Amino acid sequence: MPSKRLPLLPLLATALLPLATACGGTAGADSDGAKSVTVTVGYQSKTINTVTAGTLLRSLGYFEEELAARGRKDGVSYKVVWQDYATGAPITAQMTAGKIDIGSMGDFPLLINAARGKQLGQPTRLVSVTGYNLRGGLNTVVTAPGSSLKSLADLRGKKVSTSVGSAADGTLVRALERSGLDPQTDIRKLNQQPSVGASALTAGSVDALSQFVAWPGLLAFEGRAKALYDGAVLDLPTFHGVTVRQKFAEQRPGILDDFLKAQRRATDHLRTRPVAAAESVAKATGLPAEVVYLYNGANGISTFDPQLRPELVAALKEDVPLLKAAKLVGDVDVDAFVDPAPLKRAASSPAYPKATTAKPELWLKGQATTRSFDSPEELLKAVKGADVRAAYVPDALTGTLWFADKAVWVADGERLRAFVTPANARTYVSRHPGARVVGYADAVRLAS
């Protein structure tokens, strides 16, 4: 691992080179008299906040069903090509090369998608949201299990891995600035793909990793990391969304409508059958279902709703200055990029209710459903002696759901509270005289 900071742009610039793949060569370029149309969709299977426009949607076959119904009416044969990527940058590269029609990615990559599309003459439009967290809990900074780091302030002079241009990088920059550190000079930032950064953390070649869903939860679940910073402390929305090539949307509006209808159906499926959806995504991605459920479950960190909520659009505008400062984009006209018309046309049902406060939740082995509780104490009582597959509990300060056995627990009189990070627990203890940090086993004993 190099000892000096890597340049800001190499990974992103490489990913944005035109890619010479043949898939989707007919995408969006067919004349009205075409007898066959290929639609190419770029997605990120392991970025499970996008599953309603990617992994889950693909496994359910809803988009193909919608297109088949269209084909029976107009006599055209429709084919969907799914292309899987680790991050949003290569999806943008393929879109600007005219080789991907529809893609899903996080909020920071969406802005880069808008900027690159305009710059290269392939403008794109944001047409829907997959999942969001209004406080920013989808991004987390983690360290090695045995690390002595206790807060972001301890990262001064340390090596931190992230993916430059991603929402996780945005969280890192903002969090460091709030902690009084200069993101450019006070840490040694390494620009790495999520899997590379995870391996680097495990190998001890970096001190911390800032990443997006589902990497922090996965590493914590596997015992390869512990949370250092909960992105929800920023209290700024983060989300993933669906972007489409403007030319494709104009030439094939009906196909875009079908995609958005299918996304709505996939969202309904996930919200009504969260355990089944988590198992399906786990099977397709190789991720543990327990990790998928942490983010996508009934009380998960992510709320799924295709609507382009005003607070999400406002958050997108707040992201532009950070990307400009990193010289990743120039000016981005967010209002011109966001296009709510296709979703209103294709899926006009009302938006889902906003996310409410998460409840503790228990998933027992052999069970196809989970059980929710009104308090952490009730959850811990149910855990004792049970054959637990996973137990989840919300952070008492931020509401971010976390694994109960990986959380930091605090005893406050007869009450027990859980936190994603030691820093959150210390904040609570400082405000509640007599409160003290206890281990998970002690918390279970005290609750019982």
What is the CA-CA span between the terminal residues?
A: 48 Å
Could you give the count of β-strands?
18
* Name of the CATH class of the largest domain: Alpha Beta
Number of helices: 18
pLDDT < 50 runs, ≥5 residues: 1-31
CATH architectural group of the largest domain? 3-Layer(aba) Sandwich
Average pLDDT, all residues: 92
| Structural class by sheet pairing and helices | alpha+beta
Helix and strand layout, with pairings?
Blueprint: H1 10-15, E1 36-43, H2 55-60, H3 62-74, E2 77-84, H4 89-96, E3 102-106, H5 107-119, E4 124-133, E5 139-143, E6 159-162, H6 167-178, E7 188-191, H7 194-203, E8 208-212, H8 215-221, E9 226-230, E10 238-245, H9 246-251, H10 253-272, H11 274-285, H12 289-296, E11 303-304, H13 310-325, H14 334-337, H15 341-346, E12 361-364, E13 371-372, H16 376-383, E14 388-394, E15 401-403, E16 408-412, E17 415-419, H17 422-431, E18 436-438, H18 440-447
Question: Any descriptors?
Answer:
five-stranded mixed sheet, 448 residues, alpha+beta, D-Maltodextrin-Binding Protein, domain 2, single chain, six-stranded mixed sheet, disordered N terminus
Short characterization:
The chain is α+β, with helices and mostly antiparallel strands and 448 residues long.
Description:
The protein has 448 residues and is an alpha+beta fold. The chain has helices at residues 10-15, 55-60, 62-74, 89-96, 107-119, 167-178, 194-203, 215-221, 246-251, 253-272, 274-285, 289-296, 310-325, 334-337, 341-346, 376-383, 422-431, 440-447; strands at 36-43, 77-84, 102-106, 124-133, 139-143, 159-162, 188-191, 208-212, 226-230, 238-245, 303-304, 361-364, 371-372, 388-394, 401-403, 408-412, 415-419, 436-438. Strand 6 (159-162), helix 6 (167-178) and strand 7 form a beta-alpha-beta unit. The protein starts with 9 loop residues before the first helix and ends with a helix.
